[in-house]
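agent: user wants the structure for Phosphotransferase enzyme from Salmonella enterica subsp. enterica serovar Kentucky. delegating to structure tool.
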Amino acid sequence: MFDYILSLGGTVFVPIIMIIIGLIFRIPWLQAVKAGVTVGIGFVGMGLVIVMAIDSLSPPIKVMIERFGLTLHVFDVGAGPASGVG
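agent: tool returned. relaying tokens verbatim.
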């Protein structure tokens, strides 16, 4: 059961953890669920922004690599956005 929840990814796993933590701190059930759903929506939104950024930045980066003869194999979006995609 636990492996199944982990396999769903951070978009599902982190909101579930947030709900559980909220309930541990005695936040009302509905408020904890709203907070968890909000976190999940934030993860999905962040993922969409990163995908759109990669789609729009990939062609210019490929041209730069060809012009300067670079050998770049990684497209680094930074630690913050990458941790959000999870």
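agent: one observation worth passing along. The helical segments are 2-7, 10-24, 29-68, 79-85.
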